[in-house]
UniProtKB/TrEMBL annotation:
This is Protocatechuate 3,4-dioxygenase subunit beta. Residues 8-18 have a biased composition (Basic and acidic residues). Belongs to the intradiol ring-cleavage dioxygenase family. NCBIfam families: protocat_beta. Keywords: Dioxygenase, Oxidoreductase. The keyword Oxidoreductase applies. It comes from Amycolatopsis iheyensis. Residues 1-23 are annotated as: Disordered.
Amino acid sequence: MATPTELRLPRYGEEPDGTHPPLDFTGYRSTALRHPKQPLTLLPQMLTEVTGPLLGPGRLGELDNDLTRQHEGEPQGQRIIVTGRLLDGEGRPVRDSLVEIWQANAGGRYRHTGDRWPSPLDPNFDGVGRALTDSEGRYTFTTIKPGAYPWKNHDNAWRPAHIHFSVFGSAFTQRLVTQMYFPDDPLFSQDPIFNSIPDEKARQRMVSRYDHGITRSEWALGFQFDIVLRGRDASVFEEEEDEDE
């Protein structure tokens, strides 16, 4: 048996510089107020943090991954199917991982008290879902394409349509958050959150890909969005979320 001094952690390909956003980005106003200005303090991880959450099929409801069937009526908007794989840095599937999403409705409004802009709420759409990855690392959601919405970062500022993704590992301390965008959005050029990613290739990895094979006839458009945890093709993970979400 190897002694502690002989143990080696696995090595992964390094992520290129510019893969993740800086903590403070000039164009994104609230980062100046919210990014850490003091050295980070390491908190010891207790048993609760390293042994939970306990995940499994029994923890999820039948309709947790279908946001279009969680109410008696149907939500307004274009149905979409979003699917992809959760992969490690070597391209291997990450199984039994909890993937959560949250998003605005088709009118660009979130169902929470902080969202007050005059777009109607949809009584048949909550905008939240979750799924477990299967043996191939795949997740699937059926939802509504979210609308763009205004925010007060700069003059006439609008966020491109996007869906937030949260990925859990084997413990509460292992959580990553990213955003998925849609191809050819005209708002990319003026969005400081999207453009805070220095590396263009990394930025484009946040944009989903239309997939006609996933698209269901007379029902829903299909989009592919893989999430890679580390390495040269790592997905972009957020340091913080914008204040209107």
